[in-house]
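Progress against Task 2.4 (sequence-to-structure conversion) is shown through the following example record, which the project officer requested during the mid-term review.
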Amino acid sequence: MKKVILLTGGTGFLGTILIKKLVKLNISFLVIGRGSANKTLKQRILEKVDPLGSNFIEKECYFLETDLNNPEKVINYIEKERLQIYHLLHIAANISFRPEEYQKVVEENLNTTKTMCTIANFLKCPFLFISTAFVHGPRLGTLYETELIRPNKFNNGYEESKFLCEEFIHSNATVPTNILRPGILISNHEAFGTFGFYVLMKGILKLKNTVTIQISKNPKIYSKLGISIIGNKLTIPVPFLYSKKSKMDFVTPEIVCDVIIYSIKNIEPDIKINTVQISNPQPQSTGEILRQLLKGAEVEMPIIGVNKNIAKLYIKMIGLISFFVPMLKSFYRKINAYCFFITEEYIHDTKSLKKIVEKENLEVLPENIFEEVTKKYIRESSN
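Structure tokens generated for the chain above:
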């Protein structure tokens, strides 16, 4: 029988990077998921993976197009192909933060996790689940990886879905299980995501483009307001306020994948459930992240650290002003979705991660990554 890893989420931001690493390590896998309107699941993955690895994928890897809530089809395929699943990695998730999709996100993520946990139990193979460092919701202070405490509310449906998934796993997993809780993902090597820093970055760049167009139409009016553009550099005298005590928990998908592979190789059969928060042990301040973002975007504006309540009020004011200044609406929606993360103070316990980082000599977050990613996005968008 062929020994393979069963993997969900193979076409996503994290899954694509993981598959590249698995291919380099000659680790065979079975990906389950859906194709698109005009491409099969296999085609979607092959176009994202380094062509040099495609021969290995063609010969040693498997693809099953199916809804993730169809365990019978998955098990029948495994038996038909005579595969031995030695680890099940559940990465797939609906990551929408949209308020109108709150319940949909909760139901989708919980249902697929129930199915994958059930399959792992049936196959008697170790289970690995990708949760989130924000499973704690808007709780403040030090957040421990050994804790799973329901907060009074959640910031979005994604957080609540992961909390409910972890609850289900703790109650129902019968095989050794790793729960990994990554922080906000950012990469200067891979395609650009549709979440986290990328949302803020695209919001700033869209606002810059809109203001630039308006300046060309009404240069005298904007000049009186002190707003100007010279070359590609936009100068806005209006300050950007942020909570001076807030820090944002960013990590690269590369280190998440390294921890996944480490977990596969170092499964502890005597420990039923092991939780690792993959967070930056030395998170950068929100102010430093904003400075790098604006520098990369070539936008000059004052960045001022203030009390968190003033920072929250500032974001609400942008929302109010956007009713009268339409160009701010898109920017407000993006920044408001991450209001908690850029205004509150929290610390993630990283005891387990520190041991892995030291043992494997891993890099959590490269220096100046926010500036580099912004510049790279601008370059690639203009091509």
